[in-house]
Amino acid sequence: MQKGFSYKSKLTTIPGTSFDEVYSEAFYFYKKLKSKTRRKPYVRSVYFKKDKVFLELFWNHLFEKLNWRDRLRRLKFFPCAIDLIKNSRQKPIIKENPNNKSEILYRFKGISKDNEEFFVQIKQGKNSNKKWFISVFPDKK
């Protein structure tokens, strides 16, 4: 993907090297979003015409990962990912989920304020049309 298709986030990655300090900062950011609704936490996305993108699945997916280092590097980008989901108008890479044919995967590319590239993955059910934030991860370089 070319640099012109990246969303430039207004937020920086979460600083820190220990999982506990980065997790507490990311979870505090999540709790602020969660407190705005009584039901499932979500953000509204400009790209999806102000549709809701639900956030719960991200935490389940994160803790399925066995490697603490991998969890840490993903959590650092959580605020940037939320900013991208809310504000990005850039066209993502769109493909059918190879593991489940009834889902579509969207992969957005972003750049944090401290110039680190990352990807945000969102899945959408073909039947229900619900969108779920699955993952955020840094670009491999």
Helix content: 25-40%
Distance between the termini: 13 Å
Shape: globular
Q: Compute the gyration radius: what is it? A: 14 Å
Question: How many β-strand runs?
Answer: 7
SSE succession: EHEEHHHEEEE
What amount of the residues lies in strands? 25-35%
- Mean pLDDT, to the nearest integer, reads 90
What structural category characterises the helix and strand content?
Answer: alpha/beta
Overall structural domain count: 1
Largest sheet: 7 strands, mixed
Number of helices: 4
Poorly predicted ranges (pLDDT <50, ≥5 residues)? Answer: none
Features of the shown structure:
28% strand; single chain; 7 strands; 4 helices; 30% helix; globular; 141 residues; alpha/beta; seven-stranded mixed sheet
Task: Give an account of the 3D structure.
The protein has 141 residues and is of the alpha/beta class. It has one domain. It is 30% helix and 28% strand. It is built from four helices and seven strands, in the order E-H-E-E-H-H-H-E-E-E-E. Helix 1 crosses helix 3. The protein is globular. The two termini are 13 Å apart. The model has no long low-confidence stretch (mean pLDDT 90).
